[in-house]
Amino acid sequence: MVNDFSVILNKPLTEDHAKFMTASLLSILEYLHERNIIYREFNPIALKLTNYGYPFISNFRSAKVVKDRTNTRLEVNPYTAPEMIIAEGYNKAVNYW
After folding, report:
1. If 0-12 CB within 10 Å is exposed, 13-18 middle and 19+ buried, where does residue 73 land?
2. Are the C-beta atoms of 60 and 28 separated by less than 8 Å?
3. Are 53 and 11 in contact (CB under 8 A)?
């Protein structure tokens, strides 16, 4: 069974669980960035949890291979990085917004 990532956001996390989730999400970004992939919708809506509690990306429709910068615009949501909204170009750093 796959769970929405938002399930864990609706209850308090222990410090160890918060560290585990942070490390897991950073590991996902590191993997993508090593391959020059920007995942431009990195937010709780696009993330899911396995039965074992590991986060994963549910779809890659907003992923893009980018070696330096891109100017592609996507629809704006509450998690959109400011660089994407002002459309002056952005890089992998948008994933950390």
Report:
1. exposed
2. no
3. no
Distance of CA 61 to the CA centre of its chain: 12
Q: Which two tokens stand for residue 44?
A: 């709780």
Looking at residue 27, its pLDDT comes to 95
Question: Would you say 59 and 80 are in contact if contact means Cβ atoms under 8 Å apart?
Answer: no
- The CA distance from 3 to 71, in Å, is 33
15, 69 in Cβ contact below 8 A? no
Q: What is the pLDDT of residues 26-56, one digit of tens each?
A: 999 999 999 999 988 888 888 888 888 889 8
How far is the C-alpha of 45 from the C-alpha of 54, rounded, in Å? 15
- Does the predicted model carry a pTM greater than 0.70? yes
Question: Which residue is it, tokens 């431009």?
Answer: 40
As to burial, measured by CB atoms within 10 angstroms (0-12 exposed, 13-18 middle, 19+ buried), residue 42 is: buried
Is residue 1 predicted with pLDDT exceeding 60?
Answer: no
Residue position matching structure tokens 């399930």: 7
